[in-house]
Specification:
By secondary structure, this protein is mostly helical. It is built from 5 helices and no strands. Helix 1 packs across helix 2. The two termini are 41 Å apart.
């Protein structure tokens, strides 16, 4: 994954066709160890291709993937009702909520260290 990130950073920096050495140098500059095989594979796969065109193609493919909400919330209520009707009646236990204790910090918090003594934040 770091190889792809380094490649994209190079493209964003203006190098439209980064070499394996370019990618390796970016990874090394970040203090990480470069995986030569992964870099060679990535650069080979992307050779002669525009990253912007690849993203556009990917977005076209994602349009057809169902992603989303709606309709998923009703199943849990139906399942709970069916469980109660099936005789899985457990005694209803009251859960007492524990009150959170607030720490007394003695006035306002000086977030920025200005020594203002709790004025406007």
């Amino acid at each position: 994954m770091q190889e792809a990130a380094a490649y994209l950073l190079l493209v964003l920096g203006g190098n439209q066709s980064p070499s394996a050495d370019d990618v390796k140098n970016v990874i090394a500059a970040c203090g990480a160890e470069a995986n030569e095989d992964a870099i060679a594979s990535l650069v080979g796969d992307l050779e002669g291709k525009s990253v912007n065109d690849l993203f556009a193609e990917g977005m076209e493919k994602l349009k057809d993937v169902p992603m989303g909400g709606g309709g998923g919330g009703g199943g849990a209520a139906a399942g709970a009702a069916a469980g109660a009707a099936a005789g899985g009646a457990a005694a209803a236990e009251e859960v007492e909520e524990e009150e959170e204790e607030e720490a007394d910090i003695g006035g306002g918090v000086d977030m920025f260290g200005s020594g203002g003594g709790g004025g406007d934040y």
